[in-house]
Amino acid sequence: MEHISGNVAHTVDFMQGAITIIFALALGEALKLFVSGHEDSPILWDRLPALLAFLFVFFPFFQSMSQYLYLTYLNAPTAPAFRPRYLIFDGTMYILEAACFYVMSRALAPKHWRHFYGAVLVLMAIDIVWTGITWHRGMPVGAWLWIDIAIVAVLGGTMLTARGKHWHELGRYMLPSWILVVTLGITTALSYWLEADIYFP
Fold it and tell me: Cα separation of 148 and 100, whole Å?
């Protein structure tokens, strides 16, 4: 095994810093769009389901990214043989995933549910590619692959079902947001359960 050098640690720290900045911006935007600042209605409660859905994926993604980088590149007992191409791959995919969170944070309003769903689907597509390659590499991330596929199936099915239907006019404009929060709540719980060794090594 090639030893973990200071240069590798420096690069990983840089990547973590860049990812953290994007995540922090996304979280700030989400909270800003949830709190209106108006005296009559300081909190936009119709955005609560989307905010919860955002948080349900925000924290496990951020936590798992940090833990994965540590276990794979910084902790000698758990790190596989170092390959620069994998570090570049991981960093690129993580930056793209963090960018998806920023798009999600700007689409909390119920009328923008399609944009939120689209950002989640892109996030899952990126994560499916990352998880598939990382799993093939021998890392124990297989559960995430099936969870991602399940999310794509549910949210993609919802978008197909809603095609041509005017849920807003029918008074069901909150339905996509509730489907979203329930789906991501359940899959997040499964993620923590099935991949506990990565979240809490």
Answer: 15
Q: How far apart are CA 130 and CA 110, in angstroms?
A: 30
Q: Write the DSSP string, 83-139.
A: -HHHHHHHHHHHHHHHHHHHHHHT--SGGGHHHHHHHHHHHHHHHHHHHHHHHHTT-
pLDDT of residue 167: 64
Q: Mark the ranges of the chain whose per-residue pLDDT is less than 70.
A: 1-5, 37, 39, 164-171
Distance, C-alpha 162 to centroid of its chain? 24
- Domain boundaries defined on the chain: 6-199
Identify residue 94 by its one-letter amino acid code: Y
Six-digit token pair at 40? 């009559």
Dihedral sign of CA atoms 67, 70, 72, 77 in order? negative
Q: What global pTM score does this model have?
A: 0.90
